Amino acid sequence: MSDLKVDYWTLEDSEATLRRLKGEFDDIEGRRDDSSMIWGHDSVRDAMHEFASNMDYNRRKLSEEIQTVGEKMAGTLEAFRAADAELAASFDEAR
What is the pTM of this model? Predict the structure, then answer.
C-alpha cells in the first residue's frame, strides 16, 4: 500500500498562478488598442487589430477554462485539508 503525499504549497501556488493568468487573460482585451501605434503602417495595424479581435472569443474561452481549473484546484485543496483535519481528529479520538 502506498502513501498519498499532498504538497499543499504546490497546490496553493498553482491556484495563485491560475488566478493571475485569468487576470492577465481578462485584461488583454482592454489593452488591445494600446499597441496600435507601434505597428506603423496602416495595413499592418489593421491586420493586427483584426487578429486581436478574432482572438477575443478564444481568449474568453481560455479564461473560462482557466477559471474552471482554478476552481477545481481550490476544491482539491479544500478536500485534502478536510481529510487531513478529519484524520487528525480520528487520531485524537483514538487516544
Answer: 0.70
